[in-house]
Fold each of these.
Amino acid sequence: MKTKLLISLILISSCLTTWAWFDPSISQGKVDQIRIGQTTEADLIHFFGRPTTRQIDLRHHVTLDFMRSVPMPWQGYVPFIGSFVGGLRIDAQELWVELTPDGRVLRYRVYSSRNSVKARTVTSTTVVSHSSYSK
């Protein structure tokens, strides 16, 4: 009896700790608040928390990568039959953002394994000027 109780407590505590350390998900409402040329790195950290990775390239452009996954539902902890009753239904999300040297969003991409989040606007408009030379 004590062994069953101990195993049950360990199982429940592992489920609770998984949910306690879960980062906030990348929601459609938060993604819709990203504005090309206006949203800053501080705004992104406010919306999504600390990025998983942060890199700076030779042009001084900063890339931020926010990766999230929803913890496994309780069915996933049931041995043998958990995967058959929806225990493997998870949602992995990624938000990749490139910032200009002054810290504003240049472009971004959103990925979601269940297509729960989509990007509304993903790149900035670029004005290309053509020069003509006469002889």
Amino acid sequence: MKRFIVASIVTLLVVPGFGAGAGHCFNPADLQHLKKTLRCPGCDLSDAGLNGLNLSHARLVGANLTGANLSGANLGGVTLSNADLTRADLTGANLSAARLRRADLEGADISGAVLDHADLSGANLTHAKLCKTKGANAIMRGADLSGASLDSALLEHISLRGANLSSADFSHANITNADLSGANLSGANISGANLSGTTWQDGVSCKESSVGICKK
């Protein structure tokens, strides 16, 4: 019995997909299915090269896109609700009117992307990069999130410097320790949003317990 248990453990450690450090890449069949039908809910596209593709109005609910390259892709109207986009490259992508409810975008690079009227309700954008810079701090282009829905989203430690956030909904979002310097917040809804430690439009840091308003 002891020999059987030991053998079973060894088998699990050597079978691909099991054990620490096991390699992993996307499923080529899933990629081909997406390109053919623009429908691939729950599919595995981790680390896939999707840059420059036209995926407008594709349905990728719950898909795994961790580390995927989507730079310059047309994702207008795409459905990515509950998708995993951690560390994904979305630089310069068109995400206008995209559905990203409860999507995980932690550490993703969304600099230069267009996200106007996108639905990011409940999404996780912690440490996501949303602006391009040149040199140490000079802003080249901020993200366009005008009219976007970010209610209850996690926006901790992100830079929205120079971003267009006009008429965006940040109600009850966690925007602690973020950078909003130079951002356009005209008509934006920040009711109930946690702004503690966040750098406001004028470069002044919001005091702790800043909720719904930046206390300076």
Amino acid sequence: MTPSRTLLASGLALALAGTVSAQQRAGDAMPESYRQVQLRAQELQRRSLLAMVDSMPERLYRDRVTPIQRDFAQQIAHAAGTVPFIVVRFMGVPAPQLPDTAASLNSRAGLRGYVNAVYDWAANVLRTQSAADRAATVNLFGTEMPRWQVWDELHQHTFWTTGQVVANFRKHGMAPPGFGFF
């Protein structure tokens, strides 16, 4: 991503965070139309993860930049897999039936299947979440927030985690896939 696109993306994220924080402080309910923004964010996450999966040669899926970090496939699975972990725990929905990561981490088809299964499930949960459930407050690791905001926190986590795999591409002299906005 070019420095100007990075700056634009950072500015957009800060603007969104400022809007959300001001709205939350005011005690206002998030408008129903915001659900569509969150669904688009989920699809952006899916597309970004799949672009990473498709751009990395399979032979490097289990490669690490340093011995203590997750390998490429584990990091992609972590970025995607945190979505159901958090949603199940803090939204009180049943856990999805996801492909076994032991099989998913070793092939492009397996990793794509895992990412798609996560985001298919998450989109369904988000689409069907009632307005009352979205407004209910939860304690997300020490921070009180409405459940609708948990989706935004997940979005931040996914992109922070996905950004870490850029080092896997750089280690092998490759450029990561381009970033696409909504």
